[in-house]
Every structure is written in structure tokens, then in C-alpha cells.
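Supplementary Methods, section 5.1.

A reviewer requested that the exact input to the structure prediction be made available. We therefore reproduce it here, unchanged from the version used in the analyses.
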Amino acid sequence: LVEGGNIGDIFKQHGALRVIDATRVLVDACRGIAAAHSVGLVHRDIKPSNLLISDKNSVKVADFGVAKREDASTMQLTGEGNLIGTPYFMSPEQCSSEPADARSDVYSLGATYYALLTGQYPYHDAQTTMQVMYSHCHADPPNPRTVNPALPHACTAIVNKAMTKSPGDRYQTAAQMLSDLEKLARQLTGADLQQKNQSVSRLSAVTTSTPVETGSRKAKTTTKRNTPVSSHSPGGGCFSATLLLLLLVAGGIWAVTRFGLVDISPLFPAFASTYSQPTATVNVLCSPENQHWLQSAADAFHQTPAGRTIHAKLKVSTWRQAIRHIDDGNEETHVWCPSSSTFRDLLQRKLSNSDPPSVPTQRNIAGVDLAKSPMVFCIWKDRYDKFIDGYEQLDWDKIRLAMTNANIWGAIAAKNDWGPFKFGFADPLQDDSGAIVLCLMAYHHLDRNQDITEEMVSDPEFQYWFRELVTPIVSQGSPLPPHNEALLDAVLEHGPTLYDGFMVSESVLTRYLHSTESRWLKLQVVYPSRNMWHTNPYFELAPSHANAVTKFREFLTSVPMQEEALRMGFRPINFDVRVPIHQRPIDKYRSYGFQSDISQVCQPPSIEVVRKLLDLYLDVRDIKPTTPADSEVSSS
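The structure derived from this sequence is encoded cell-by-cell as follows.
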């Protein structure tokens, strides 16, 4: 048998393992790590890809290349300011460059267990490495049952204990964690796993040729990468082990040998029974705003009896990219989940005007709302206080005045170094939120909540006001970001030097509040007097796989997935959802200005009004809609 095969490969290809398989993997991993700790080694890079499957039907911990002996002189992370470990599985100590002892490995074991149970990384919704690391340090330990409610409560207890932020509150040794895992495994199988790999005196690990400190001297191993090291020898004496290259084909497990492919499924019955091939693939176009929740839901869906035969394949796209994709017809699109219903009329017209019609008349493309989120103004707290001192309130009229006053901060805050007032939002030519921003400008100035017309937004007085507001925004030097996620990434990177204020959807903002405050300043959230919902509609487009499309929609609107949507910053549409107050972002972030009630909610305008507003926006930018890229809406 050739060497190879690791749990990370199985995780990447197939997502979550069955609970018994994930638990058995962690039992073996804990035994190996406990052996390492018994001789004073801290691994510091535990993750699924470092868990190898051996020819003895067990898991070996690999890659001690960044390991250090646990003593006072070597507990700091290697190198001045360098981070050792993989961000999704790093402990809070590693993320903050603090001393990392054996309890740091316990945290990484808990993070690995969470990943294998759920099919997703801990804090997978974080957008940057910095956000992942911040979450490890400050966010609550992730609960695997929010992804898969069918998991035993003991799984949550083990993950929570291992991933507690304070090392003193975790399992103090890998052996303690091993005890709980073995207890759970016995409950799941009725088997006594103590009969398997009884001794933890041998370090079941794979090393590189990287020197590993043992005792007072460094011993450099001369073995190949996939060679286990004995903990009995101070010099890291080794013995040979043969590993498997596993190929999962049609539900079986095969090994590559010199005699060809050999079916070894009987050696891995738990793994082999898990991975049935899907019989239906549902192609879903989703927005950058809802992709994290939808992907989390899709991963959970695949663990259900119905979901094991249905593959929900997500593709992230802005509204313009989605319309083009549907127009091209190169790949059948079964579902479109934009962040709002702003372009529903455009979708219906394009599909009904196609020849032949893209969607048969019996298919309902009115859309089913999945979750809601309003729009919010955001402004750095120190600047908000000065803005209110000078203008009394934050609304579109006051922003217009601020944008046209070149010395605003000098006049109202004696802060000339702050420069002019800088404001941003997502590009309306690409993002639903950007288009909603233009609509909210119109609703505010026209003092209406619904029924604005083409004539109203074509009025010279409105257009003069609109130009005065938008021209400084599009003349700030850099183009508007393509979507809310990109906008907040830019804010996180550049801080107040980029924007003094901006408008985004509430749900996306919840994922960035702590990170922006940690790196820059606190943000103040203000709800506009007139608002519009992002309803994240579920448009069913294609007649094929209709049953699978319906099952996935029903799963998204189920209580567990709506609870997950709430935790990720959305407002659920299922009124049966019950989540503790401290877990609801609206309540958690009230100090930032979050509120439950939305005073005046405006109705989405007609596509003709949206088209007029986009044309006016293009005109302000001095870009005429003469190319296919800029005439997407106009041509409709």
C-alpha cells in the first residue's frame, strides 16, 4: 500500500462525518496528543489534515514540525510576532501571541471535533484571517447543534469545554477530554474502546525533518514525513508504518496497491456507509450577503435523510451577475436567492420574454422570503457625536449638507485633519443593497413609503437634489465597493480614512462590529426614518428537480435553520423561533444603536423606477448606458 490519506481530505470532499466516526477520530487524536504531552511536547497545529489514517484502522497525529517542548523557555510562539498554527483551529493564546501550553492543543482538538461534526470550520462566517482570530479570542464557542440539531448534547458539551476562551476553564489535559470522548463513544456504540490502542505511551505522530526540542538538546529526525515517532526515545527514535491512499468511489473505499485497486470498505465500515452519492443537484445562485447562512444551512441539509440524496450547490453572485447567468443558460439555475426582491420584476420579464420562456408558466417565481434585514447608517462614534452636535440628526438631507461642506469637521468639531465628510455604500449597478440605497434616497426626499413613479424621480427638482447628494460620493477617488461584504472589508482595512459613514444591511454589519472596534473605533448604528427590507427571497426557476428544490426551501424555513439565521444577524420569518436574548444580535448590540422596531417600511418600487434611478446614477457618474454592462436594467 502507498502512503497517504488524511481526515482533512475526507472533510473537504464530503463535509461532516457521522457523529460516531467524528468521535472515534477524536479518540485516537486525543490519545496521540496525550502521549505527546506526557513527554512535554505541544503540537500547536492540530487540524483535520494532520490526522492520518493508518493501515491499522486508526488515526495518527501528523506534522510535529512546529511542535515545541513545554518549558518556560520555549512556550512563546516561534519568531518575533510570528503566528504558528492554522487560523480556523488556533487557540486564543496563539491568536494573541501569548504563551501556548498543552491546553492550547485541547482547544484545537475541540475546534477539529466541531469541524468534523458540522462540516464547516469554526467561525466560518468570518471574512478575513483577522476576523477569525478575533472570534477565537472573543466570540462564544460555536455550538455544533446549531448546524445539526440531531447531534447529541454531549457533543456540544465537549466542544464547549475544549474551546472555552480561558485555558483554566478548559479540559486541563488531553487525557481528560479523551475520557469524555470515550464515554460518548461507548454510549453511541455500546463498545468499549479501551480495547483499541490501549497504550498512550507511544507518540502516534508523524514528523517532518524539522528539529524537535526534547530535553536540553535538539534531536533532528532523519525519517520521512509520514513516519511515527516513539515517545520512549529522547532522540525521537522511529519505527516504520504503512499508510493508505484512500479513494472514495461510489460509496466504497479503495486502496491503491501494486496489484491495483483493492476494495477495503470492510476495514472502514463507518466511513463507507456515510457517503452516498446525491441523486439530484440543485444549483443555487445566492448573494454575498446571505451566502454564509445558506452555505451553513446547505451543510446541515446534507446531514438530513432527504439532504443526503440532494446536493445544494451554491454560487455567489451579485444581482447583475445572476441575471447574466440566467440569461446565458449555460448551466441550469434552479434557485436564485438575492438579498432583496428589488429585481423580481426584471427577473420575471426576462424569463417570460425569452423564446422559449425560460420558466414554464406552472412554476411560481414570485419568491418565498427566507429571512429579513433592514438597512442602517453607520458612522464612527466619535464623529457621530460631533455630527449630531452640528446637525442634530443623521438623515439624507444632513448627509447632503455635510458632503457639500468641504470644511465640515473643522467647523463642527475643530478637527481639520479629518478632512471632508466621506460616505459610501455598495455599487448599485452590482449590488441589491446599493440599489436599495438609491430607492431610500428617493423615498426620503419625496416623503412617501410607497407608490413613487417614474414621473416623480424624473422631476428636475428631485434630480437636482439627487445630484448634489450623489456627486460627492462618486467623486471620492475610489469606486464604490461591489457589495456590502467588500465595503466592510475595506472599512476594516482602512478605517475612518476611507469613510466617515456608510450604509449597509444590518445582517452583514453584525459580523464586523467587534472587528472594526477592536482595530479602529466603535461604530454607531442609526436606522433611517424610512427603510426597506432585504427579504432574501427564494425564486424557484427551473422545473427540473422540483421536489428537491422544495425540500431545500422547506429546510431553510424550518425552526433550526431560522434560529441559525437569527444568530447570523438576520431577522427570521418563522415566528416559532425562540433564541435566548444574549444570542440575538439585535439585543447583543443594542449599545451600538441596534433596535428591534423599524418605524416606516417602504415597499419596493417598480422596476421602471429602479431603472430611472440607476440611469440617473449613471448620468451623475457621467457614464451613459450604451454598453451591455451598463444597460442591463435600461434594456429591460
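DSSP finds 24 helices and 23 strands in the chain. These observations are discussed further in the main text.
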